[in-house]
Amino acid sequence: MEKIVKSVQLISPESMKKHRRSYDCDICRKSFPQKSNLVMHKRIHTGEKPYHCDICGKSFSQRIHLAGHKRIHTGEKPYHCDICGKSFSHNSILIKHKRIHTGEKPYHCDICGKSFSQSIHLTKHRRIHTGEKPYHCDICDKPFSENTALTKHSRVHSGEKPYHCDICGKSFSQNSVLTRHKHIHTGEKSYHCDICSKSFSDNSDLTKHKRTHTGEKPYHCDICGESFSHNSILTTHKRIHTGEKPYHCDICGKSFSANSGLAKHRRIHTGEKPYHCDVCGKSFSRNSTVITRKRTHTGEKPYHCDVCGKSFSNNSHLTKHKLIHTGEKQYNCDICGKSYYQNSSLTKHKLIHTGEKPHHCDICGKSFSQNFDLTHHKYIHTGERPYHCDICGKTFSQNSSLMKHKRIHTGEKPYHCDICGKSFSQDGNLMKHKYIHTGEKRHHCDICGKSFSESGTLTRHKSIHTGEKGKR
To answer: 30-104 in CATH: which number?
Structure first.
C-alpha cells in the first residue's frame, strides 16, 4: 500500500507541471505550452500569412483572423449584446462594446491614473506622457503617435478618398468625416448639450462645443505656450511656427497650412457656392459667410468686447476691434515697415507693392486686389443693396455705408480729434478736420497751383477758371 501511495505522489499535478514540456521560440526565446502556439507565434518573425481570403485575396497569419475577416464580405454578425441587442462580427468587439453599458474601465495609466475600457486606448494615452511618436510618414518623415493618424495623414499626399456617401456620392479621406456628413442628409442630431440644449450630430462636436461654456483649452503649443480648445486648431497653429503648408491646389499650385483653407481656395477656381441664405436666397462659397450674412438680416451681434462693451456680428471683427485697446501690431511689412493688427491686413497691404490684382469681375473684367472689393463692385452690375436700415428702411450696397448712415439716426460720433476734442461721425471727416490744425493742403489746382485742404474746396475753386457754377 505504501508503494502505491509513493507512485501516486510521483505523478501529482505539481510533479506533472515540473516535467511538462515547453516549446521555445529560437528567435526571441518566448515559451509556449503547445507546439501550435509556437507555430503561430513564429509567423510574427517570419511574416508568413498562409491563410488567404478567396474573395479579395487578403492574407492572414491565423485561421481565426481569416474567419473574422470574411464576415466583412458576408455581413455576418454572430455575436449579440444581451443588453441592447446590437450585433457584432467579432466576440472581442462585443466584449469592448459591453463596457459601454457596464462602465468598466479595466486598463489604468500608472502615471496619471486615468482609466480606459480598451488596452489599445491606454497604449495610445501613454504616448501623451512619453511623447513617443513611433509612426513616420515615408514621404515627408512627419512622426505620429498613432498608426491611424499616419494613415489619415498619408491621404494628404495621395489625395485618396476611400469613403463614399451612398446618397450624394461625395467622397472623404476619413470614415468619421463621412459619418458626420451623412447627418446632413438625415438631419439627425442625437447629442444634446445639457447646458444650453443645443444639439449635434456628432459626439465629438458636442465635446468641442461644451468647451465654449467651460472655457477649457486642453491643447497647448510647446513652442509658444498658447492654448487651444481643439487639437485640430493646435495642429494648424503649429504650422505658423514651422511654416508647413501640406495642402496644395492642383490647379494653381498654391499651398495652405489647413485643408479647410485649400477647400475654400478651390472654390475661386470652380465658382462653387454651396451655402445658401434662407432669408434672401443668396449663395456663398463659405458657410461662415452665410452665418454672418444672416445676422445682417436679424441684426444679431453675439460677440461682445469685455473692455468697452461694443458688440459685433462676427468673431473676427471682435478680434480686430480688441487690438484697438491693446495697440498691438505684430505683423510688419518687410518692404516698407508698416505694421498691422492682423496678418490678413498685411497680406492685403503687400498687394500695393506687388500691384497684384487676383480677383476679376466676370461681367466687365475689372480686377481688384481684394475679394471684398470685387464683391462690392459686382453690386454695381446687379443693383443689389443687401444692407437695410431698420430705422428708416434705406438700403445700401455696403455694410460700412449702412453703419455711417445709422449715425444720422443715433447721433453717434465715435471719431475724436486728439488736438481740440471735436467729434465726428465719419473717419474721413476727422481726417479733413485735422488739416485745419496741421495746415496741410493736399489738393492742388493744376491751373494756378493754389492748394486746398479739402477736395470740395478745390472743385469750387476750379469753377473760377472754367466759368462753371460750382455747387454750394
So the answer is: 3.30.160.60
Chain CA centroid to CA 5, Å:
78
Handedness of CA 357, 359, 361, 362 (dihedral sign): positive
Residue 259 φ then ψ, to 5°? -65, -35
Locate the DSSP E strands across 347-444.
Answer: 359-360, 367-368, 387-388, 395-396, 415-416, 423-424, 443-444
Query: pLDDT means per 10 residues in the chain (472 residues)?
Result: 44 52 86 88 88 89 86 87 89 88 90 88 87 88 87 86 88 84 81 86 83 85 86 86 87 85 85 84 82 82 85 80 74 83 78 82 85 81 81 83 85 85 83 80 84 83 76 47
Alpha-carbon distance of 358 to 351, in angstroms, equals 9
One-letter amino acid of 90:
H
CA distance 238 to 76: 44
Distance of CA 37 to the CA centre of its chain: 47
Residue type, 464: I
* Residue entry with cell 497604449: 123
Per-residue pLDDT at 81: 92
Beta-ladder partners of 172: 163
According to DSSP, residue 224 is labeled: T
pLDDT value at position 3?
44
303 neighbors 312 (Cβ within 8 angstroms): yes
181 vs 169: CA distance, rounded Å: 11
User: Is 217 in contact with 228 (CB distance < 8 Å)?
Assistant: yes
Contact call for residues 290 and 284 (beta carbons, < 8 A): yes
CA distance 305 to 313: 12
Given this model, what pLDDT does residue 300 score?
84
Half-sphere exposure of 97 (CA within 13 A, CB side): 16
Q: Please provide the DSSP assignment of 295-318 as one string.
A: HHHH----EE-TTT--EESSHHHH
| In the chain, where the domains are located | 30-104
Q: Give the 3-state secondary structure of residue 369.
A: coil
- pLDDT number for residue 1: 45
The Cα–Cα gap between 14 and 383 comes to 97
Q: Which helix (H) or strand (E) holds 219?
A: strand 219-220
Rounded to whole angstroms, the Cα distance separating 310 from 306 reads: 8
